[in-house]
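sry for the spam today, last one i promise. struct tokens for design, 115 residues
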């Protein structure tokens, strides 16, 4: 497996782990009854901004950890050149990431609209 494929796979798995952890966190809040106290949009906005900051820090840590473990395991560094296949892999990964984001965003807005 090439380096860009491994990097994108790690990014996808990291996003899924974060999404499941966040969902678990929300369901434990709802189970305790604390989620109903976050009914105003300003509080939801603050929660979303907090999650966004945590997600960015999580992604940075996952990429740093991936680069370190990949360098130790394979003794290779990130390639300095990008060919057409690497570009194609990067574009497909970006397309899939945006698709997953938009589906998740639509489901979240649908849940808010349904109450």
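last one done:
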């Amino acid at each position: 497996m090439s380096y860009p494929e491994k990097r994108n796979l790690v990014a996808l798995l990291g996003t899924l782990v974060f999404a499941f952890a966040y969902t678990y966190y929300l369901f434990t809040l709802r189970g305790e009854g604390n989620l109903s106290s976050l009914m105003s949009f300003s509080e939801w906005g603050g929660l979303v901004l907090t999650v966004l900051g945590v997600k960015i820090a999580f992604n940075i840590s996952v990429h740093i950890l991936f680069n370190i473990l990949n360098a130790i395991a394979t003794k290779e560094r990130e390639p300095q050149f990008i060919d057409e296949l690497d570009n194609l892999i990067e574009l497909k990964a970006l397309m899939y990431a945006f698709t997953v984001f938009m589906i998740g965003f639509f489901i979240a807005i649908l849940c808010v609209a349904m109450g």
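Helices lie at 3-32, 41-74, 84-114. ok im logging off now
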